Amino acid sequence: MEPERLQKILSQLEMEVGKTIVGHKDVIRKVLLAFLSGGHVLLEGVPGLGKTLLIKSMCRALGLSFKRVQFTPDLMPSDIIGTQVLTESDGRRDFQFKRGPIFAQVVLADEINRATPKTQSAVLEAMEESQVTVFGETFPLGSPFMVLATQNPIELEGTYPLPEAQLDRFFFKLLVTPPTPDQLREILHRTTGTEINEPTPVLSEHSVELIGEMKLLLRQVIIAPPLEDYVVRLIHATQPTVEKGEAPIPEVREYLRFGASPRGAQAIILGAKGNALVEGKVHVSYEDIESVIYPALRHRLVLNFQAEADNVDADKILAAVVKKIPRD
Amino acid sequence: MLGGSFSKGALPERVVNDLHRRLRRHGWWDGLLKFSPPLLAFSYLVFTFFMASWIGGEVTVFTLAASLGIILGLFLHFGWTNLSAASVARFIDDRVDGKDRFVTLTTIDPTLYPSFLIHRLRREATGFLDRINIKRDFPYRFRRSFFVSLIGSLVFVLLSHIFLETNLYSSPQATSIKELSVLARELSQSPRFAELGRSLNDLESRIREQGLLGAGNEDLVQKLLRQIRQQLAAGGRSGEGRSDLLRQATGTLQGLAESMEKGQGMGGGLTARQPRGKEGAGKELIERGDGGGSEDSTMGGKTKQGGENSVQARMEKSGKDRRDIDRGGKDRSADEIGEDKGAVSKEEAQGKGRKDGHEMVAHGEMPERYYKAGERGEKGIEGARFVIVELPEAEGLSEVSGAVKRGRGLRGPKVTVSNIPLPPRSRRDAPLEKQRIPLEYRGMLR
Question: Which residue of chain A has the CA closest to B107?
């Protein structure tokens, strides 16, 4: 595949999603990058910001099979994965596996932090290995497969925060912010009138081969060794304890319990490669790396109590890290 | 290629390499300019010390070579390690807004990536080449370090110069040596006074070799210079004046040479003795290590006889001093010295080693070699040469010396006397001693 073609497809996807979503261009792009990288995305934002609509529009534009699961405390794993049901045909009764919504190509796990850890963990194997095991039988999931989860940072009563292990499986964690006044005005125009804009599918369920080429091209994007070293130094700088004593960055030393995992470095590199392709380049630049540092690492840093007490979030720590770590 | 824009066929990697070479040359220049001023300043200082005879030629050469080696090492170190190809590529990227294309092309392994992507990246980078002119965009500029180094070195040289002017050039010793040198050169150019000029030149060389001029000999040199100048002024009128000049100058020169010989033999005289650690507390700097008689004999100018025949006056003065010594109960005549020598010889025979400075003097009439300068022996004044070496504990002998008379005598602790060869004077623990000893034995003490 030519880079120009991929760039054109991504531009079309962004444009189609933009028909229903006002603003959030960066979020849309990052979701597309995660999709091309084979990762999953966690969107966080207060209710009413269009998280679910964004994901639905994205799936419609991608033309892939889509399922939505509303996570609640009484949601069972079988409700997601599927279960054996007793069926009768020709007078003969038999158990048959009824596939759950996880078998769709794109799964929306809405308010994922409201389900119990048991149910949340049911998604773990699916997210990591693109397969599920039911009664000892393993079933492969669709290809491509992507989980888009949302969670609400408020109303935390009765919620079950995602464990670090599960958070680490998300490629990006994107923050959905409130719209600006202009964006809000545009939202009102689009949603309170008679005109309805629906995204047109750019790809289809049968575009698996094309998507595979796109994924391959993304991984072929050139990255220079000095830039890889930069990513390594960034990840290493988030470790509160290093081999030779404490971390050199005070914020890291003071507010972090655990630093970013190697998955974070992988996410940065792949996200930067995807960003380079979207920008029409065939090589990664420092700007590409810095554009994906925050979504790739913010959910991989484990803050300590002091950070919560001082109201310090992961983005502030990452800002300090980026500032302290030189490019060369 | 370095001078202007690049052709469209030029490879970006080649541009990076060209710039790399250019910036490395800049780095070499930076190092050269940064380290040269301190080297030159230090060389100036060392050369100044050499010219002032504070350090010898070998020390000068060694010091300069060592400093040159250090500077060269620093220069090579900073010249070799300050720039990488990736850094150079980054400079180009920053200049042409290349979005890290040059860095990527310079550092990647092309075999790891599809060729169509490499070609495309190279094509994109080539498109940026018309934005860059290496000579224009990367000219050589003097770095701040050079100016800091230059200013610092100049300040160092200036302060050193001021310090030396106030402490070295303005000192009477240096002035005397300088005047001596000038006069020697002037006289050497005249056939009539060539011999005297050579003698003065030799004297100046000896003074420089032995270090700073002592106070007593400084007066003597000044007197010598004054005599020669006066005689030069008067001697131009008649041939008699010329002979006077030669006679007087030769006499003064001879006295000065004797004084220097004594100083050399005694570790005093022309040489300023250095404090010698703990023992040195009692062995102060003695610039005049000769005895009182010899001092007077060589000085000869304390009576300020001005235009008189200085040689004659000095001889008379010397004889008077000599007689004074002979008359004084504490002064030592040749016989007494001979007796002492005999006593010490007995002690030596008993294995006690040297006791004092009289052990080397034989019994009987004092040999000619113990005559003071100016006293006449069988061979006239030529045969009257001796040196005085005085032990610090030799109170009887020291009392006759001018040094003791002025309260600047040898006040150090007693030095163990034995027949063990004395340590060289260059050692800190070498005993300070004065001892009457024939000139022929002077080599034993060195």
Answer: A224
A1-75+102-190 and A221-328: same fold? no
Q: Is A281 on the interface with B (CB under 8 A)?
A: yes
Residue A286 and residue B100: Cβ atoms within 8 Å? yes
B311-370 pLDDT, tens per residue? 444 444 444 444 444 444 344 444 444 444 444 444 444 444 344 444 444 455 566 555
Q: What architecture is the A221-328 domain classified under in CATH?
A: Orthogonal Bundle (1.10)
The 3-state secondary structure of A108-128, one letter per residue: EEECHHHCCHHHHHHHHHHHH
| Phi, then psi, of A23 in degrees rounded to 5 | 75, -155
Mean pLDDT of A244-251: 78
pLDDT in tens, A149-196: 998 887 777 788 888 888 899 999 999 999 999 999 988 888 888 877
May I ask the CATH architecture of the domain A1-75+102-190? 3-Layer(aba) Sandwich (3.40)
Q: What are the boundaries of each domain within chain B? A: 12-166, 171-445
In tens, the pLDDT along B112-162 reads: 999 999 999 999 888 888 888 877 878 888 888 889 999 999 998 888 888
Q: Above 70 in pLDDT, residue A113?
A: yes
Separation between Cα atoms, residue A56 and residue B22, nearest integer Å: 57
d(CA B130, CA B10): 10
A278: left (phi over 0), alpha (psi -120 to 50) or beta: alpha
User: ipTM value of the model?
Assistant: 0.85
Flag if B114 and A220 touch (Cβ within 8 Å). Answer: yes
Between CA A128 and CA B248 the distance in angstroms is 113
Distance CA A278, CA B303 (A): 107
Where does residue B391 fall: left (phi above 0), alpha (psi -120 to 50 degrees), or beta otherwise?
A: beta
Buried b (16+ CB within 10 A) or exposed e, A285-321: bbebbbbbbbbbbbbbbbbeeebeeeebebeebbebb
Q: Is A222 on the interface with B (CB under 8 A)?
A: yes
Q: How many CB atoms lie within 10 A of CB A119?
A: 24
Q: B437 pairs with which residues across the strands?
A: B387
pLDDT of residue B395: 47
- 8 Å CB contact between B180 and B213: no
Positive/negative CA dihedral, B221, B225, B226, B231: positive
Distance CA(B188)–CA(B183), nearest Å, equals 8
In contact, B355 and B395? CB cutoff 8 Å: no
Structure tokens at B60: 């000068």
Domain ranges of chain A: 1-75+102-190, 221-328
Question: Shortest Cα distance from A104 to chain B (angstroms)?
Answer: 34
| Set of chain B residues whose Cβ sits within 8 Å of the Cβ of A281 | 99, 124
The DSSP output letter for B268 is -
The position carrying tokens 């966690």 is A42
**Distance set, CA A147 to CA A49, A81, A123, A132, B8 (Å):** 19, 13, 9, 14, 48
What average pLDDT does the segment A30-38 reach?
A: 92
When pLDDT is cut at 50, 70 and 90, the band that residue B63 belongs to is: confident
Which tokens belong to B273?
């003795």
Q: Are the beta carbons of A220 and B120 separated by less than 8 Å?
A: no
